[in-house]
Amino acid sequence: MVALFGSAPGQWGSIEAYTCFFLAAGTGLRRNEILALRWSDVSSSILRVESQFVRYSDKRSAPKSKRGRLTEIPHRVEEALEAWHKLTKFPEPESLIFCGPDGLRRGATWWLKAFRRAMSALKIDYTVRNLKPHSFRHTLVSRLRSSGGVSDKAIRDAIGHGTEAIQDRYTHQDEDSVRGIGKAVDEII
After folding, report:
1. Which of 106, 147, 158, 163 has its CA 20 to 30 A from that of 100?
2. pTM over 0.85
3. pLDDT for 56
4. Do residues 118 and 4 touch, judged by C-beta distance below 8 A?
């Protein structure tokens, strides 16, 4: 992970791409959740994930888990977000965090090209290893689980895995229930 996110923008080519993928690696959010984030979704190291973009559309829907969630932003990722917020042409609360020069949403093509460009710059053959941006999500979950410092339920809640019994779908999170995730991620990245 250090090779990927040691310094900005590095192999990512832009501060925006660096920040976007650092957020993906540090929170495990899905592509369409990240690309739907607005600055108003960020508040004192907590990220509110309430929607995602529908594939190939500007329409929004609930996240894949069918419910919103809160997740803690690791300190280093939060610093990158703050730096990007100071540089973006669209810092307003309702602006997308990651958007094109016109303020409109970024799409899957931008996402994939930015990832492949960074992997190529690092001489990582993403095709042989079958690496995709979604691999950050799996890596984060695996490393958090193996660290033993965070409960499986806290990981599921932060990541948005909807595999618990139905009553878990209706369990409401509060900010205290997600504290600790960011510190654990800071220790592994």
Report:
1. 158
2. no
3. 66
4. yes
